[in-house]
Amino acid sequence: MIRDTSGQDVQLTPASPWKNPRLLKRAGLGVAAAAFVVWGLMSWQSTNAVDASVSLSRLNIAAVERGDLVRDLVVQGKVVAANSPTLFSPAQGIVKFAVKAGDTVEQGQLLAEVDSPQLQNQLAQESAMYNKLSVELARQKIQAKRQRLENTQKADLAKVDLTAAQRELKRAELSMEKQIISQLDFEKASDDLARAELEYKQAVQNSQLENEALTFETQTLQLQVDQQQLQVEELQRKVNELNIVSPVDGTIGSLAATQRASVAANTPLLTVVDLTSFELEAAVPENYADDLGLAMEVEINMGGRKLPGEITAIAPEVIDNQVVARVRFTGNQPKNLRQNLRLTARVLLENRSDVMLVKRGAFLDQTGGRFAWKLNDQQQAVKVPITIGALGLNQVEIVSGLNEGDQIITSAADELEKAQLVALKD
To answer: Which parts of the chain are coiled coil (predicted)?
Structure first.
């Protein structure tokens, strides 16, 4: 009988590999090797994660610090005469110049004459009318005196009649008591006294009214004379202005008419430039127009010298995207200033104290002031977002994104254009 294999099979329990010291040692070595490989890969990836590399010799580095920032604006300007009056013809006529363009003149010096027969004839007519009215006024005053005397005489005669009537009434009263006169004569004396009183009263009132009327007529004529005198004085002033004199010490800038030319009234004739007083006419970009203000301090650069000044006028219109401002020298004006001399001016717009700031550089134009590359301790530069504030001539205010003591790249480079992490090489 053949026996089957059931008796040959023996069930065995597998042993746990964790209980074998040799296997545990090998597993530990494997894990350590894998960790080393992963660390190496990560280190290799970290080393090669930079987007670009730039030599430090090509870059400018600046530190963020805290201090005072002066917000300013540098503009170009030209020197112009602060006082350059243009003289006009006072009337229609023929002009005769006594000077030429470029001549040096003094205040009060005769520059030109305008021959105006029409104005001179008008002055003569008005003067004659003034003399006529003056004579009439004198005649009116004499007539008024004569009339006042007549009025006074009438009042005095009425008073004499009144006095006589009063005496007649007293005489009639005495005669009536002695029965010398009749009742009719007494009453007649009373009526004569009443009539004399009335005539005297009316004579006084008429005298007062006529005196007032004479005074009124005299005053009316006096006003006419005064009015005519004003017209004569005005015409005389215009005739005197036919001799055109220099209002200031200076130089003749230009002649607007030719010699012996016929000119109309209020026609410009010539310009006098006062060389003792100059101002700077500066062109300011229109986006800074709202920041300008009168009496704002200005620092004028003239051949390395810094001269103080202030804004005295701001043009209300914008021409070619610029606003013209006038700057006056506040200190002693330089003696070597010339018309149309080109100078640089620094307008002090604002002064901010205790703010974070950094040196101004080309990185502002490259990123529009929105980013900066900050240096880390691994000789790398990381692109970080920033917010800038006021812009100064040499510095810029940092509102956020950087801290005091941080170092950033202030110059521009093509490698930084799209790089997030930049390696810096010596």
So the answer is: 130-245
Cβ 102 vs Cβ 251: under 8 Å: yes
- In this structure, what token pair is assigned to residue 237? 């002033």
Q: What was the pLDDT predicted at 45?
A: 39
The answer to whether the CB of 70 falls within 8 A of the CB of 360 is no
Q: Helix or strand or coil: residue 108? A: coil
Q: How far apart are CA 16 and CA 13, in angstroms?
A: 9
Average pLDDT over residues 119-129: 93
Contact 290, 261 (CB under 8 A): no
Question: What integer best gives the mean pLDDT of the chain?
Answer: 84
Predicted model pTM: 0.49
HSE toward the beta carbon, residue 166, CA cutoff 13 A: 9
State whether residue 406 is helix, strand or coil. Answer: coil
pLDDT-derived band of residue 42, with 50, 70 and 90 as boundaries? very low
Name the CATH topology of 86-113+242-273: OB fold (Dihydrolipoamide Acetyltransferase, E2P) (2.40.50)
Q: Say what the pLDDT of residue 47 is.
A: 43
Q: Which CATH number fits domain 75-80+275-351: 1.10.287.70, 2.40.30.170, 2.60.34.10, 3.40.50.10490?
A: 2.40.30.170
The neighbouring-strand residues paired with 310 are 297, 328
- Report the C-alpha gap between 240 and 231 in whole angstroms: 14
Highest CATH level, class, for 117-232 = mainly alpha
* Highest CATH level, class, for 52-70+352-425: mainly beta
Beta bridge partners of 402: none
- The pLDDT-based confidence of 23 (bands split at 50, 70, 90) is low
Q: What is the pLDDT of residue 135?
A: 93
CB 418 within 8 A of CB 51: yes
C-beta atoms surrounding 284 within 10 Å: 22
Q: How far is CA 100 from the centre of its chain?
A: 35
* pLDDT at res. 13: 56
Q: Virtual CA dihedral for 202, 207, 212, 215, nearest 10 degrees?
A: 170
